[in-house]
Amino acid sequence: MVRGPKMAVLMVVVVATVSMVRGSLAAGTNPSIARTASIPLTSADTRQTAIESTLQTILSTMQENHNQLQSSVREVMRVARRTQRELTELREDTDLILGQMYKPSCQEVAEDLHDGTRGRTNEAIVGVYTIKPPKYKPTQVRCELGRGAVGWTVILSRSNGRERFNRTYREYQEGFGDPSDEYYIGNEPLHRLTTWRSHQLRVVMEDFDGQKAWVQYKIFRVAGPEDNYQLTVDEFEADSAAGDGLKIHNGMKFSTYDKDDDDNKDGNCSQLFGGGGGWWFTNCYHVLPTGRYRSVGGNEYGGLAWYPWRNVKHSLKAMTLLIRTH
Ligand SMILES: *[C@@H]1O[C@H](CO)[C@@H](O)[C@H](O)[C@H]1NC(C)=O
Ligand SMILES: *[C@@H]1O[C@H](CO)[C@@H](O)[C@H](O)[C@H]1NC(C)=O
């Protein structure tokens, strides 16, 4: 950054020097002609002295310019460092202020509400709140706030097919949909939340025959973009009503129809079997909350699946994924 302009200025000075020397030569007599015409030596000496003194002046001007340039560069660097420091402080202040305004997850929203309503009936509340996951921007999510300061953050919700889930890697990264209806929180906030503190996962599902089931995992974590949001899901709780469908997805990277990190060799799972949805596909899935919504169970790939609770081709009526700190 510093070298560029300095070099450019030096180049200009050198070019100017050369043309000045050329100019002074052209102004005098051509030296070879001067010799053959045997003009007295003193004239050549005078000219040489003049050139030397011009060069001397130019050189000292160059040195002066160079010194000035160096001190300007130092000044610019000083201002840049100060600006950088001020920006860092500003960012820290902003984070502090936003941190006080917004809780990092629904668990803290629940604790806050619990304090505020001490002594009154403490009913379960479902609502949309703005949270600020650590090192992430304020984000709207659905919170399920239960009795006793228990707050679950809803990270994915399906129930009617209003939202399109065949979306790009980029869209899955940022999240999409309506938190009060169908939506996905996004891989990036999910990563920030689950690597900030250890989280558990709960999945609640419903079939078209009215039956309901839930499962719970004690460990749920999503790695960062450098690891393609790799999933860690473990310690399935044995009394969960539906089977351990996520076992095969543990350790997988996140794939979408436009970014293929699955184990299928013939193409990509999202497009081939997943209805265009993004997921931690293997080859290809037992669980698929992001499939195409179907208003009947049906018997084909690409719907909302939880195997082994139901056949992998049977599409469920509703599915909600929630997380909470331990
Ligand atoms: C996404 O799904 C919608 C509805 O399910 C469909 O109309 C659309 O063609 C799909 N788009 C892609 C790119 O698959
Ligand atoms: C996934 O498969 C579809 C259909 O074969 C193809 O158009 C798309 O480019 C594939 N995506 C990737 C990331 O390979």
UniProtKB/TrEMBL annotation:
Residues 97-326 form the Fibrinogen C-terminal domain. Keywords: Signal. Residues 1-26 form the signal peptide. GO terms for cellular component: extracellular space. InterPro entries: Fibrinogen-like_C, Fibrinogen_a/b/g_C_1, Fibrinogen_a/b/g_C_dom, Fibrinogen_C-term_domain. SMART domains: FBG (SM00186). Transmembrane segments: none annotated. This is Melanization interactin protein. It comes from Pacifastacus leniusculus (Signal crayfish).
